[in-house]
């Protein structure tokens, strides 16, 4: 997936509801050949879906992966779910990359966010 070492880590912002989220929770197998390239391609491809709002990723040290996708409406979800490359990637994931996974789809009814204001830098403070 993306290397966030150069860019600040920020979650996808809050959107005006209603919209949809997909929560894809995974445990991967030892066989990961081709996974990174396919994941990068899926990130690139989903951005072309009208109504795609963004995506968050997290990985625990123990191997649990969580990807949350945000979509404006059910049509955007359907377009992503039925995309031929995405379907092929899902099939390969079941055959090779995932020990198991769950997918939850939910309609968001409330959304808000918070960002701490950064304190101004004072180069003369000692």
What does this structure look like?
With 126 residues, the protein is an alpha+beta fold. Helices cover 28% and strands 29% of the residues. The protein contains three helices and four strands, in the order E-H-E-E-H-H-E. A four-stranded antiparallel β-sheet has the order 2-3-1-4. Helix 1 runs antiparallel to helix 3. It is globular, with a radius of gyration of 17 Å. The protein starts with 18 loop residues before the first strand and ends in an 18-residue tail after the last strand.
The SS-based structural class is alpha+beta
Number of strands: 4
Question: Which bin fits the share of residues in helices?
Answer: 25-40%
The low-pLDDT segments are none
Mean pLDDT: 91
Order of helices and strands: EHEEHHE
- Largest β-sheet summary: 4 strands, antiparallel
Cross-sheet strand order for the largest sheet: 2-3-1-4
Q: Give the distance, in angstroms, between the N- and C-terminal Cα atoms.
A: 40 Å
């Amino acid at each position: 997936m993306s290397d966030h070492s150069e860019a600040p880590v920020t979650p996808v912002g809050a959107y005006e509801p209603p919209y949809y989220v997909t929560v894809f929770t995974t445990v991967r197998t030892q066989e990961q050949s081709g996974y990174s390239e396919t994941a990068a391609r899926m990130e690139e491809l989903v951005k072309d879906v009208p109504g795609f709002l963004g995506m968050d990723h997290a990985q625990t040290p123990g191997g649990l992966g969580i990807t949350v996708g945000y979509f404006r409406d059910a049509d955007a979800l359907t377009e992503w779910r039925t995309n031929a490359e995405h379907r092929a990637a899902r099939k390969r994931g079941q055959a090779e990359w995932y020990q198991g996974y769950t997918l939850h789809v939910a309609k968001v009814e409330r959304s808000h966010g918070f960002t701490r204001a950064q304190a101004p830098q004072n180069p003369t403070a000692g």
